[in-house]
Amino acid sequence: xxxxxxxxxxxxxxxxxxxxxxxxxxxxxxxxxxxxxxxxxxxxxxxxxxxxxxxxxxxxxxxxxxxxxxxxxxxxxxxxxxxxxxxxxxxxxxxxxxxxxxxxxxxxxxxxxxxxxxxxxxxxxxxxxxxxxxxxxxxxxxxxxxxxxxxxxxxxxxxxxxxxxxxxxxxxxxxxxxxxxxxxxxxxxxxxxxxxxxxxxxxxxxxxxxxxxxxxxxxxxxxxxxxxxxxxxxxxxxxxxxxxxxxxxxxxxxxxxxxxxxxxxxxxxxxxxxxxxxxxxxxxxxxxxxxxxxxxxxxxxxxxxxxxxxxxxxxxxxxxxxxxxxxxxxxxxxxxxxxxxxxxxxxxxxxxxxxxxxxxxxxxxxxxxxxxxxxxxxxxxxxxxxxxx
Length: 389
Hints:
The protein is of the alpha/beta class. It has two domains: about 1-190, NAD(P)-binding Rossmann-like Domain (Rossmann fold); about 200-380, Rossmann fold (3-Layer(aba) Sandwich). The chain has helices spanning about 10-20, 30-40, 50-55, 65-70, 95-105, 125-130, 150-155, 165-180, 190-220, 225-235, 255-265, 275-295, 320-330, 355-360; strands at about 1-5, 25-30, 60-65, 75-80, 85, 90, 115, 135-140, 160, 185-190, 300-305, 335, 345, 350, 365, 380. The longest helix has about 30 residues, at about 190-220. The model has no long low-confidence stretch (mean pLDDT about 95).
């Protein structure tokens, strides 16, 4: 088959790489540098398996800036463009998805099936069908980790397709055939239910993070050993050990926006818990700011803006709000973030000489501790107890 993938972020590029093992895949993007890198088999994002596949696999993959080249003759157009949360509208900005839908419609090819992989509000796909008077579109959610997106496509926890017809089955088979895992749990449902699965799954993960962060806050204030409490709680198999490592707050590209979008979808439905998750995360970040300020440091060093090891993305990172809170209290802040080449970020000096950064920092804030700062144990402020995600 010929498959077009619109958008080459974590979702799009991992899918393009996955499916180009067995199919002709054309990736569409609006950034010339990304297109050039993909065509030269250089991954524009940090992902171990994508980098490995680019070096070692024979992939039928090319990238282009021309949507007509990408979409012409395609069996499927996978839409994986960004849908950032618009704080003013209190809803996802889905304009990039609509732009692709309109471009596909302009091709006047009834054989193209659109598959939305971008995260969208519940009911969005049905709205698009009605608005554009089309039926060749459905939603299929992704459950990927930054830095491990291709791995999660090769060994997926499940495949969910928001279509019960033969085209939905054909798309699921594409994913199954390209994966290395066998006997993958595969569910077929309507797109609206599939959209709900995505938002509820991510909001539950946010709930886990918020829960163990509040447990950690309690233990810290009361002088208790957080690690002992979490170990005791999580030995209950119904609770388990996933997403139980305290942090500065949940962040990253998905959880903050997905929880807010789900809350917006609840506007005419009774709820308490969903709103509490969003508020809990804000409270946690405020608590961390207060903890740092109470120590009266001369200079706070921020070790990495990324939330976890193996990621080069810090969109909506919890530490950004913490920096904002520190700066609002006139606290001097410096940042170590080797992915940034500028000398300043949000009014903070970038110090990418690690030894200089360590020497200048009175306190080093690290959401996740790595070997390169472990020698500064006396300076480190972290809630990372288990040194995992």
